[in-house]
Amino acid sequence: MSDYGKAFALWREGSATPWRDYTRHAFVEGLRDGSLPREAFLHYLRQDYVFLIHFSRAWALAAVKSDNLDEMKAAAATVNALVNHEMQLHVETCAAEGITEADLQATPEAAANLAYTRYVLEAGFSGDFLDLMAALAPCVLGYGEIGARLGKEATSQTYKGWIDTYAGDDYQEVCRDVGALIDAALVRRLGEDYTQTPRWSALSKHFDTATRLEVSFWDMGLTP
Amino acid sequence: MSDYGKAFALWREGSATPWRDYTRHAFVEGLRDGSLPREAFLHYLRQDYVFLIHFSRAWALAAVKSDNLDEMKAAAATVNALVNHEMQLHVETCAAEGITEADLQATPEAAANLAYTRYVLEAGFSGDFLDLMAALAPCVLGYGEIGARLGKEATSQTYKGWIDTYAGDDYQEVCRDVGALIDAALVRRLGEDYTQTPRWSALSKHFDTATRLEVSFWDMGLTP
Amino acid sequence: MSDYGKAFALWREGSATPWRDYTRHAFVEGLRDGSLPREAFLHYLRQDYVFLIHFSRAWALAAVKSDNLDEMKAAAATVNALVNHEMQLHVETCAAEGITEADLQATPEAAANLAYTRYVLEAGFSGDFLDLMAALAPCVLGYGEIGARLGKEATSQTYKGWIDTYAGDDYQEVCRDVGALIDAALVRRLGEDYTQTPRWSALSKHFDTATRLEVSFWDMGLTP
Amino acid sequence: MSDYGKAFALWREGSATPWRDYTRHAFVEGLRDGSLPREAFLHYLRQDYVFLIHFSRAWALAAVKSDNLDEMKAAAATVNALVNHEMQLHVETCAAEGITEADLQATPEAAANLAYTRYVLEAGFSGDFLDLMAALAPCVLGYGEIGARLGKEATSQTYKGWIDTYAGDDYQEVCRDVGALIDAALVRRLGEDYTQTPRWSALSKHFDTATRLEVSFWDMGLTP
């Protein structure tokens, strides 16, 4: 098990079935053994470009909702990394497949994509920093867990580039940092016994819903 | 054609196919001729209860985003009507079918339901009053148009209660008021030639997306 | 001491000095003994009209940020009462003084007025329902406390109309309801021991800051 | 005259008096000729630290409210520069004066400071990207104009460090970029004739109010 902090471990345990559906999804297994059709992967990449735009907006909202400089620095650095680096990587990967940046920008947003990002953003707008973190966690940390596992278990080179990105030290460090950010934010607002407050179950619900929306995102990826 | 103002007429024309898919959906036709399975109708009512909670929140957001007292009064009256009256009607209709308020509150939110309301709320949070109005319009005015048509074309008494609500003078007046509110808000912010501004196409996109999400909502209604 | 619930009692105790500066302000004493210059009172009424617009928007935001139907109903009813009744009362009081509604709408917003309402709204947008309630409480409940006291201690009839409004049963009931809404919202999110969570001090800070902004508002009222 | 684009030139012209009050304020003249008391400068620096936290949050909100990748990149880079660089510079300048980072974090927020940042943030939350830009412009671009002038007209070395920061090529480039960002955002949303839409006067009002709040901020700086 990846160690991305205490809250994540508890949330994952509390959403065991959807978490497994997400992290062991047929799409993921197809990345692992190379059986994922190229067409599905490219469809996923296009949708993920649109996803990353809204996901970056959600991390920017985390900076808005921070209540101390450490949280702001972490959120600002994440936005910058997403917008000025990860999206660039995406553009380059797609370019190598003959998909231009103009194609990416013209991608019609799939229903499962829209549902997921708007859920996360709305949770953040309507709630506070913690609501947003709970809704953001499954994507960031789930990709970390998937990447770490496939880094060890992959039986094919076909999707090595994708796997290396998320299995790599850089991304794994991001996951540990985000896990630590979440743990500190919980204690800072709700105290050491945060799991004893009613807020904890509301936050766990956000984590659970976002995890289910990840499952739908993979489902969508399989049906170009 | 129902006359709910100029902007609505243009938006509807610009989204002719999804608008038809929405307002002539099999679910709607089943209400008209009474062929809609009871189970589907009750499933829809349960989901609509959850929908109305978030829809009311979106109208409350319209009051927040108003920039004059007339808009605030209109939005505040709508929220009050939704929360303190329409939801009550819902509760009573459901009670007559043996569905308690506790059942309603415990309804798990369907994916198509969540996608729609979060889209509308997020459009409002991220944009201004006009973005929110464009995303709210298909629900309010589409139900008006459906109600008005079924009021004339229904061939069955089975769903007479539902039809009468939306065909009735009260609801039709709400639709004319909302249409007028939107027209005035557009002129007030963008000028008489508002369709010539780039904003108009962004607003039309919100209307179009929300209309497509209405289609998915009916689809969901048909599959309890 | 007015009994508007547990959280209010604790907040007031924790901000004893600014609370006294607010509720025993020279402006308030001038209302009590009739010594407040008419010019100052009319200046205050004009600014309060602008204040109420933004204050109503803040209560609408509370409806958006509610997480259950009871909170929504309370917030929606408050917005409706403010926008469709209290503001009307304001307009009528001002009309009796020769100030037209057009005058009211043209009132340039004083700096102390702007500072207060934007603080409250921003606390609500950036935080959750509790942050908003803590920032809204000093105005709603302070006017209740001032009204109740002046209802007993007034030595002049000059500002009887104003005093009767806030001393009256209707307004006192609103205060008890808002106090109960806040107490329930705290328990619902943070548990019975909510004062033991770090959130409590952040909320108390909002209450304290908003109380200080009320003092500045009275100061502004005295300097037309 | 600094050339930071078309919209800025029009806004500045439309708010000529407050703009002059802001950019030729006694505080500014004291920086120019070295007559500003050290105590006032340090008071200003402390408050500016608190200001920059909320100002960074407002730029993060601009990333949230962007509707294309270019706007997001610009906003994200600005947040990152503010949070991870400009604030660091601040900390170092203060440290050289014996003010620790802990002192900075413990600074009680002055009323004029709070009024300004909450106004900007609320304008952004309630409105769209343009509302936020109009409210952010006076600070960013006014400091550019002040810096550029003092770079030429300073008659003392006392505040050379401060002046060099804002007169320097890096900051001047930021100003030209922000001016271009605003011009492009206006055309993108309202069309080439954006000054002919009613929105333009609402945006000009934001610029005007924020400029007046800058004047109050300098006033506050002069009274430690």
Automatic annotation (TrEMBL), chains A, B, C, D:
InterPro entries named among the record's database cross-references: Haem_Oase-like_multi-hlx, Thiaminase-2/PQQC, Thiaminase_II, Thiamine_Salvage_TenA
Pathway this chain belongs to: Cofactor biosynthesis; thiamine diphosphate biosynthesis
Domain of life: Bacteria
Keyword match Hydrolase: yes
Catalytic activity from the UniProt record: thiamine + H2O = 5-(2-hydroxyethyl)-4-methylthiazole + 4-amino-5-hydroxymethyl-2-methylpyrimidine + H(+); 4-amino-5-aminomethyl-2-methylpyrimidine + H2O = 4-amino-5-hydroxymethyl-2-methylpyrimidine + NH4(+)
Record-level GO cellular component terms: cytosol
Keywords: Hydrolase, Thiamine biosynthesis
Gene Ontology molecular functions: thiaminase activity
Entry's EC annotation: 3.5.99.2
GO biological process: thiamine biosynthetic process
Domain Thiaminase-2/PQQC: 19-222
Family: Belongs to the TenA family.
NCBIfam families for this protein: salvage_TenA (TIGR04306)
Chain's role: Catalyzes an amino-pyrimidine hydrolysis reaction at the C5' of the pyrimidine moiety of thiamine compounds, a reaction that is part of a thiamine salvage pathway.
Protein name: Aminopyrimidine aminohydrolase
Lineage: Bacteria, Pseudomonadati, Pseudomonadota, Alphaproteobacteria, Rhodobacterales
